[in-house]
């Protein structure tokens, strides 16, 4: 009967709202940091042809990642302890999420550009971005709730 406790449903809904709010804040942090890093990093090309855009995006992604980790840890999941193991789990989750995000975005763009019945879809890049981001947001929430920040059974 414990599984049907309405308090648990309310807590889950609060977690989803908090997670979404923090996710939006992390995306804004990523975007703002990306713009700042593009302004301050000198124009360059490094091994493999990567330029300051790739360096700026990497640094800005890490800024957004730190925002989401610290705020979700304390506010959404209410964990105050320090845990290197939890941080490793978080980084693994977001590493997988990054790979899935890029793969889904690429796959959706391929579908939208290559299949005749989808060629007329407007805003293809936004559609691919939203699809990949939406899928990965659900993945990240579930991984954080049930693996990274899971409470141990008493």
Helix content: over 70%
* SSE order, one letter for each helix or strand: HHHH
- Mean of all residue-level pLDDT scores: 86
Beta-strand content estimate = under 5%
Helix-and-strand structural type: mainly alpha
Q: What coarse outline follows from CA principal-axis ratios?
A: globular
Number of strands: 0
Low-confidence stretches: none
* Oligomer type: single chain
Rg estimate, integer Å? 18 Å
Distance between the termini: 18 Å
Counting DSSP H or I runs of 4 or more residues, the number of helices is: 4
Secondary structure blueprint with pairings:
Layout: H1 6-40, H2 52-76, H3 84-114, H4 124-148
Description of the structure:
- The model has no long low-confidence stretch (mean pLDDT about 85).
- The chain is mostly helical and about 150 residues long.
- The radius of gyration is 18 Å and the shape is globular.
- The chain starts with 5 loop residues before the first helix and ends in a 6-residue tail after the last helix.
- About 75% of the residues lie in helices and about 0% in strands.
- The chain contains 4 helices and no strands.
- Helix 1 packs antiparallel against helix 2.
List keywords for this structure.
154 residues; mainly alpha
Question: What does this entry show, briefly?
Answer:
The chain is an all-alpha fold and 154 residues long. It is 75% helix and 0% strand.
